[in-house]
Design brief:
The protein is of the alpha+beta class. The chain has one domain: Winged helix-like DNA-binding domain superfamily/Winged helix DNA-binding domain (Arc Repressor Mutant, subunit A). It contains three helices and four strands. The longest helix has 17 residues. The chain starts with a strand and ends with a strand. The model has no long low-confidence stretch (mean pLDDT about 85).
Length: about 80
């Protein structure tokens, strides 16, 4: 699959976007999380494809897979900090 997202500091301050658009990956993932169907997303944003949507979800999945969690034990409370 061809790379469908890019990171360019000149576009949305460097947020990952779908190539050829100003649609942030996080925006597409959020639409789907809010219950938008893939067909509804494609109808409202005709400049993107099913492959673009799949790539957005894969990108988000890869970010979560690479996330590392560290637990610090404090005398009063246990605090968990997430660090990428």
């Amino acid at each position: 699959m061809e790379r469908t997202h890019i990171v360019d500091p000149k576009i949305l301050v460097g947020k990952p976007v779908i190539k050829g658009t100003r649609l942030a990956v996080e925006f597409i993932v959020e639409l789907l999380a809010q219950g938008w169907a893939e067909s509804e997303t494609l109808r409202n944003y005709p400049g993107i494809t099913r492959e673009d949507i799949s790539a957005c979800l894969m990108y988000a999945s890869n970010i979560l897979k690479s996330e590392k969690n560290y637990r610090l034990n404090c005398p009063r409370r246990n605090h968990a900090f997430t660090r990428q």
